[in-house]
Amino acid sequence: MTNRSARPARQALAVLAATLSAAVSLPAQGAVDPTTGRQLHDKTCVACHVQRYGGDGSKIYLRADRMIHSRAALDRRVATCSAMTNAGWLPDDEANVAEYLATRYYKVGAPAGKK
Ligand code: HEC
Fold this sequence. Notes:
Elements: H1 3-28, H2 34-44, H3 46-53, H4 59-62, H5 71-84, H6 91-106
The structure holds heme C (HEC).
């Protein structure tokens, strides 16, 4: 194989590597992102809640006898549910979803040791 024919493949690999590292470096910046959390939540979690509670499913978070009353409990519940659904979420993904639910519904503030 000549060097000339190998070059496009190498360039394509370089572009792929750059794209991948950009995608991977986003959550590594450390900022919790409720917008990403919302997307993950809507993709993986909402359908089942809607099935049981109707509407947009948010009633499950707002009902009078809800289970979650603290940020610690919310963090644990999100971790449990992500494991239960085999979502393949990383800790950053769980943090983003917990932040989304905390700010939009539960109003329970930041996790212990942050902010
Ligand atoms: C297969 C159905 C199903 C899926 C999928 C599901 N949930 Fe749930 N979730 C439930 C049910 C049912 C309850 C209520 C349990 C109860 O009332 O005892 C619940 C409760 C919750 C609660 C607590 C609500 C409260 O009472 O305050 C949270 C938070 C929650 N789910 C988050 C998630 C997240 C995050 C995901 C996605 C990773 C998810 N759930 C996926 C069925 C589901």
